[in-house]
Amino acid sequence: MTSAPTGVAPLAAAFRDGSDDPVRALDRALLAADRGKEDKAILWRIPTARAEAEAAKARLQRGQPLSPLDGVPVAVKDCMDVAGLPSTNGTRFLTEPMPHDAPLVQRLRAAGAVLFAKTNMHEFGIQPTGVNPWHGTPVNPWDPRRIPGGSSSGSAVAVASGIAPVALGSDAGGSIRVPAAINGLVGLKPTYGAVPQEGVLGLTLDLDHAGPLAWTVEDATLVFEVIAACAVDRAAVVRSVALLSDFFEGGEPLAMEVARTAAREVFGELPAAATPLCAWATAVEFVIVGTDAQKTCAPHLRHHAHQIAPDTRMILHLGAGLPASDRKRADEVRFGMRRELDALLEKYDVLVGPALGCFPPLLHPGAQALGELDTAKIAQLAAVSFVGNLTGHPCCVVPCVREGLPMGLQIIGRHGDEARVLAAARNVERAFGPRRPGRWHG
Predict the structure, then answer these.
(1) Neighbouring C-beta atoms of residue 198, cutoff 10 Å
(2) Catalytic choice (87, 151, 152, 170)
(3) Domain residue ranges in the chain
């Protein structure tokens, strides 16, 4: 354990009382990135970071911080535009520097955050495993033999291993929540549309969300408030909770028991909420990703097929065979799923279920070079996270174990009601709290 503050809120407090400053915090982050270089979490260093840290230090010395994020080092996923650097989107060929910051990056800078790194990710953000043959696969700090989770793999590993106090990810099918749960972090997928997606390379036309991966619920809240340009009511109260019983079906028994036991410990015996249409989440997600990727990613096949990993090529080619009528049918089921959750959320403030369908799978030996495509395991891993993308409801994943491999609970709330989702997540956090893994670079 180190004495330096970990996370956003502790850093902000140390900046205020003068026991730490943004320049020292940046230096620690860069040193940690050097120590963890072989873990492949960081792709690019942002050259403006030093000047931003010094400016933040001067503001804090004058007692004029711009926000609680002022001076805090932040990493962003490499699908998010940062002026002067590429947005590779996990590929080896998208290397042209971007002319402008994405709006959510602009909001971070306006709040005084020190953007210091762009993070690794699954190619095109197309899978939840986090495997990347081109840039290397980020190392799971809890067990290097296992997947790091994706597609926001680098963001999760950077935070969990002590490189970044907080990071941004994007999520079209669990890509914030899956790596957050695997790495023992809090991951927030906001309501669809709450955070601007301009300047963020998307996998789909209407499933992608951006949000934070953080140590604590408060850290995630602070970042969300900046990138969504809103205030979260921390006095929000959760009075009624239901257990998403169908979300436990087909999951790995031990992982499901861990999640169920944690929910009972925090919330007591909960009424079961049935969501029969959500059983179709995997099929609906695969159809929508397959068809939308023909517009967002597949055009690159014409010029860069040999530079796209075999697993990604396979998904793109399979998607090309899906007719438009399949997308229409998938949307019909998807809208039914949304109505299903909306009806439950008229009765309950939040719905609770497992964050993952299984503990993180072992990394296949051939995946480092070729990518990995195990649709059965992907479905088991991420089916419960697909639902929130398909319906657009806000979801927060929060750790729910005290020892062993991480596991998380997923909390779903009404559209626009991040406040109650985060309030419920705080209840879980009070019982379990954050843990550091053995592989630590901070």
Answers:
(1) 10
(2) 151
(3) 8-432
